[in-house]
Amino acid sequence: MADRLTSSAAKSLGAALSASGKTLVVAESCTGGLLGGAITSIPGSSLYFSGGVLAYGNSAKISLLGVPPALIAARGAVSREVAVAMADGVLSIFRADLAIAVTGVAGPGGGSRGKPVGTVWVAVVSPGGVRYAHRFRFSGGREAVRRETVRASLCAAIDVLRSDAAGGE
User: Fold this and answer.
1) pLDDT (tens digit per residue) in 109-150
2) What is the C-alpha separation between 74 and 55, in angstroms, rounded?
């Protein structure tokens, strides 16, 4: 169950998607389904949410989303490049208008010097290309990192849709 801020963001995203007539899909790693859960907690979300792929392990990123193994080997699973490839992959599966992908280190283990616990990449992609890609460094425990990732992802997609509505890029 999403907290109040996350529910509010999910409602705002749903309203923006409904107003634009666009559909959304997600590819999730570190959030483990929480992003899709937040989106589908809003009644009527089936009008704009087509679905998603939970690709927690690298093998799922490769086999389900088509992320090149060489890309993961070169850049790491928690990278801008992999987040964008995950979004591209889920976008092509569902043929939606917008895709959100998240990949990160939620902790408590798995961090490294270059990618400490709390490092998360969020990408928002449309058929026209990358619309947003940002590296976050969230603090707190595993659940806090996952919760902040969901909220940041929802807000990023809202910003992209608002930019579209304003005629910007």
Assistant:
1) 999 999 999 999 999 999 999 999 999 999 999 999 999 999
2) 19
